[in-house]
Amino acid sequence: MRKLRSRLARSNTAFGRALLGLLSSGKLDEEAWEEVEETLLLSDLGTQATSELMASLKTQVKVDGSSAEDEVRTWLREDLVRLVDPTMDRRIASSRRPTDDGEGRPAVIMVVGVNGTGKTTTVGKLARVLVAEDRDVLLGAADTFRAAAADQLQTWGARVGVPTVRSDRESADPAAVAFDAVKAGIEGEVDVVILDTAGRLHNKTNLMDELGKIKRVVEKQSPVDEVILVLDATTGQNGLRQAEVFAQEVAITGIALTKLDGTAKGGIVVAVQRQLGVPVKLVGLGEGPDDLAPFDPVAFVDAILE
Ligand code: GDP
Q1: Residue 99: its pLDDT value, please?
Q2: What's the confidence (pLDDT) of residue 68?
Q3: Within a 13 Å sphere around the CA of 258, how many CA atoms are in the beta-carbon half?
């Protein structure tokens, strides 16, 4: 988890330090509390979680400013850990082995999200993590809308040493490509098939129909074990609204929160988990192949408060 700490150091820790500073220096009058509230809201924690945290802190932190910083850190840490919710199951479906249920089929992971959020990059990085765990991985380029998308995925595949199933025809049926990828995965006895999907939002209805269709068509051969929604941590409330649109159409099982290296808005972890009722399972901490980490709630809070 050293990576998580060092990558968050530049941004999120500024938010943690600001909070600690505000809560443990001097008298906490109305104005100081407002500043605490503003800092929490600016981190994208959301209004509900912010009020809960404020209420809890108000019962613990001494208003005369006599709380020691260590004490405040302990209270804040406990509250933040509770909000981030370490009880959620964050294992990804790829932890199942093809032989687990005797069916000999691969785990199937669909990755969805708006273009530009880091979907393809996350697919590539996830493949890298799985390869490092000695899994056979196959990628499926079910974003057939732009030829460049399949090229980009294939480049990632080559980079991390896994094959990519794609169509050579532009505008091929994405569900057909997904079907072919899963078929190749079953026949090739791979451990995990990861499907990259389209994410153009200007034609929302079609996109959502398309994602639903991909899932249905894949399910003719194999259950879809995991649907990961990729969300760009820097997009705040806008990103959350988009997340909701996706969640209405496909049952999301986990969130990959990208670009956490470039934002102080780590509170979005709490906001999105509450909004969708599913855990953040992966975090993107940079553009390179090794910049994806499983999300560890306690390490995350510790990094913020470091
Ligand atoms: P897609 O359109 O959703 O498939 O997005 P891409 O995978 O093409 O990524 C869009 C941009 O975001 C690229 O420049 C990526 O390098 C960048 N990106 C993706 N994930 C991260 C991350 O975790 N941190 C940073 N800093 N950049 C990222």
Answers
A1: 53
A2: 82
A3: 25
Give the Cα-Cα-Cα angle 176, 111, 304 (nearest 5 degrees): 175
For the chain, which residues make up each domain, given as ranges? 2-84, 107-296
- Give the model's pLDDT for residue 202: 62
Closest-CA residue, ligand 1 atom 5, reads 118
What ipTM, to 2 d.p.? 0.99
Architecture of domain 107-296: 3-Layer(aba) Sandwich (3.40)
Domain 2-84 sits in CATH at 1.20.120
141 lines ligand 1 (CB under 6 A): no
- Residue 88's φ and ψ, nearest 5 degrees, are -70, 145
User: Distance (Å, rounded) from C-alpha 139 to C-alpha 150?
Assistant: 10
pLDDT score of 16: 83
Of residues 97, 75, 67, the one with CA closest to residue 225: 97
Residues lower than pLDDT 50 in the chain: none
User: Would you say the CB of residue 242 lies under 6 angstroms from ligand 1?
Assistant: no
Crossing angle of helices 236-249 and 204-218, rounded to 10°? 50
27 annotated as a binding-site residue: no
Q: Would the CB of 144 count as within 6 Å of ligand 1? A: no
What residue type is assigned to position 64 of the chain? D
Q: Whose CA is nearest to atom 9 of ligand 1?
A: 118
User: Which one of 145, 201, 287 would you pick to mutate in the ligand 1 pocket, going by the greatest count of ligand atoms within 8 A of its CB?
Assistant: 287
3-state secondary structure 24-60: HCCCCCHHHHHHHHHHHHHCCCCHHHHHHHHHHHHHH
Residue 287's pLDDT is 93
